[in-house]
Amino acid sequence: MYIERMEKLQDKLRSHDWHGMILCQNVDLFYLTGSMQAGYLYVPAKGEPVFFVRRSVLRAQQESAVRVVEWTGMRAFQQQLAIDSGTIALEFDVLPVQQFVRLQQAFPNVDWVDGSALIRELRSRKSPAEIASIERAATVVDEAFSAAMTELRPGMSELQLLCLIEQQLRASGHLGPMRMRALNQEIFTGLVGAGASGAVPTYFDGPAGGSGLSPAFPQSASHHLIQVGEPILIDVGCNIDGYIIDQTRTVVIGSLPEKLQLAYDLAAAILFELETMLKPGATCESLHTHALARAEEVALAMHFMGYGADRAKFIGHGIGLEVDEWPVLAKGVKGELQTGMVIALEPKFCFPDLGVVGIEDSYLITEDGFRRLTRTQQKLFTV
Q1: Integer angstrom CA distances of residue 101 from 50, 80, 107, 112, 171
Q2: What's the pLDDT band for 190 if we cut at 50, 70, 90?
């Protein structure tokens, strides 16, 4: 599996006439070697890849599918690679400037190019083993959600409800982190947001952030006590063996106000309409265009995917080892859906004084359409 991935990356390097690629981001290292130990992976366009490991060399040797060499410093790295010239790709989207400068100094005659698209394209299409891990995560989320619904009561805090869900997830193998590639984007399990508390805007690049417990982590659940008639947005995931499922359901104790019920019904309708568009060859932009047009039809565009200036600019995204994988379903993204891609669709409506309603499911793109990976029933849950 890892050798096949490496060979595909080498094919991409040769197609660009690049001499090789140096990778250091932990998720990319894991994807290509099977080990998430700290170091540099050098993938030549031709020849044997080598994983130069700082720590832990012993564990990397036990886990890595490629040869491991102990890192002893930049000078030794320079001598071992013996690259006097040529074009070498780097992960410009995640590589710290400090490390880039050190590489420039060590290899002064090399032309450096951005190879991040190569690895992101490669990772966007999932293998059967990857899909199986995502499906296991989907089952765990469904079970944790169902268990939490039996415990939900008025007066329970958002945090208490999230803890119930998270306890079940962790006991079933959830690793904890929901990794993201984008700078300063962080998630740990997800969001439980009730009423206006769930609609508080924040830096997180999504349609809902939540109040959080502190400005030190200004998102997710707070101490707000859940009331009858409030929309409860439960947007949580699960990480099994590194692979993530992403799911959102709206819950209410009693019934929703009419305005929110109409918005939820529209979100569900948009999701089902987008499902009919899920097939190889569909453009990423077309799904976003359709969803936004539906919100505009009923004058809810300012509430769609957030509120006002804080609206998210997408309707869905790829998932896998990270929550924000390719493709991105947004305006201007001309790329097409391909078999093996796994995406999440998440139409949501945000009302600052009332809360957030919506639904999110994850899908595998197949040769003849799609397969829904999330297990939880697609409905508004009432308690």
Answers
A1: 21, 19, 10, 11, 43
A2: very high
Per-residue pLDDT tens over the stretch 354-364: 999 999 999 99
CA atoms of 246 and 345, how far apart (whole Å): 9
Where in the chain is CATH 3.40.350.10? 2-123
DSSP-H helix ranges across the chain: 2-15, 26-33, 57-63, 74-81, 97-106, 116-124, 128-149, 158-171, 195-198, 258-277, 284-297
Residue with structure tokens 């891609």? 341
2-123: CATH topology is Creatine Amidinohydrolase; Chain A, domain 1 (3.40.350)
Find the mean pLDDT for residues 352-381: 98
Tokens 């790329």 correspond to 335
d(CA 107, CA 140): 47
Contacts 24+ apart (CB under 8 A), 204-209: 205/312, 205/324, 206/306, 206/312, 206/346, 207/305, 207/306, 207/311, 207/312, 207/346, 207/348, 207/350, 207/356, 207/358, 208/233, 208/235, 208/306, 208/348, 208/350, 208/356, 208/358
pLDDT of 72 > 90? The answer is yes
Structure token pair of residue 373: 């990976």
Architecture of domain 125-382: Alpha-Beta Complex (3.90)
Mean predicted confidence (pLDDT) in 366-378: 98
| Residue 307 identity (one-letter amino acid) | Y
Q: Look at strands 381-382 and 355-358 and give their pairing.
A: unpaired
| Residue 323 scores a pLDDT above 90 | yes
**Confidence band of 198 (pLDDT split at 50, 70, 90):** very high
Average predicted confidence (pLDDT) for the chain: 97
Report pLDDT for 188: 85
* Residue indicated by tokens 């509120």: 307
The position carrying tokens 């190879």 is 115
* Rounded Cα–Cα distance for residues 74 and 67 (Å): 18
